[in-house]
Give the backbone structure.
Amino acid sequence: MSGAAEKTSTTTLGTYRQVIAVTGTLLPVVSFLGRLPVAVIQFGSVLLVTRTSGSLATGGTVACALALGQVVMGPFVGRLADRRGQRPVVLAFALLNSAAVAAYTLGALYGLPTPLLVALAVLAGATVPGIGPLARARGVALVRREGADERAVNAVLSLESTMDELSFVLGPALIGVASVLAHPAYAFGAAALLVAGCGTAFALHPTATAVPRAAPRGPVTERPRLPRQVHVVRVGLVLLGVLLGGCGAGITALTQELGHEDQAGLVYAAMGVMSAVVGLSMAAVPERFALQHRWRVATAAAALLSLPLIVTHSMPLLYAAVTVFGALFAPNLITGFGLTERAVPRERLAEGMTVAASAFVGGQAVTLAAAGRLAQAHGPAAAFAVGSAAAALAFLVALGVRPPQALTPAAAAP
């Protein structure tokens, strides 16, 4: 290792140690385990309902309903957390979500009609406690309170995105293992228990009060307005969600076509592993490589590296293609959340993070339903093509992102 590389590695590790010293070691553990159920139910819904109903289109529709429930309620959860504090909000939603996931799983196992199953899926999605975006808001607030520099904030976002990616590695892996050994419903049972236990631990952690609450609104009080930049970033995150949704539908359809449908979760996990590895290394990216430039490079690379998926027709090539392609997800998400954190007012940080996450999940949700039907009618390549087109559009959106110097830091008063 060269001297410069060794110095960079040492600095990066030191920054992560600084972050962990501020948050404590327990918080990342419970926040990771608390967000793992979201990955299980989001990806596993397609496999669970496809297995119980025999229809990929039905699986995609129900999974879309679940994700849309989360998308619609996610901003409300963030806004409520800004107003009431994270502790009571996460505690209530974690317990509600545990019961909703259990009911949804039983509904799929007992073969309820699709409209009833859609209703249960919406309930399971709407009660998601939003631990991932709320953990981002909490971590950023903690390091800002300690007077840390932008490198520490970037390390928080990198660490949180890496935990997201790891959850989307273990989530599909749990589904894949459960599908191979018995039934995907076992993974859903584990998800219900995890969200109840670890969601409660996240809510009761002493750092729950770190995020400043928004002042109560009187008759003439208005919430701080969001700059145009925030909405541009959200559009880009929607398109990245479309990219992931198209890939998810294509992976499910291709593995089914090749007679290896039980490996869909493992293929998805391979993509997540690479994304998680790259995500951790993002804290080493120098500050002079500006956020808007990072996003342009990442979206352009995602558009190019998604193209081989369209012509992939074997399991070995699929594993190889998604592993290489997975390296681009973490840089895109970390940069998107970084731009959001620097743009939203301090007292709307939790809401800003949950809306950004909802934008990504929303794009993924709609695409899972549409691309699932498209793949069933025209083959996996059609679903992968939808994702590639979305990545190209995301690059065009990234071209409109202004330099971070023009943004209002979340730490500053509006």
About this structure: The two ends are 45 Å apart (CA to CA). Residues 150-181 form the longest helix (32 residues).
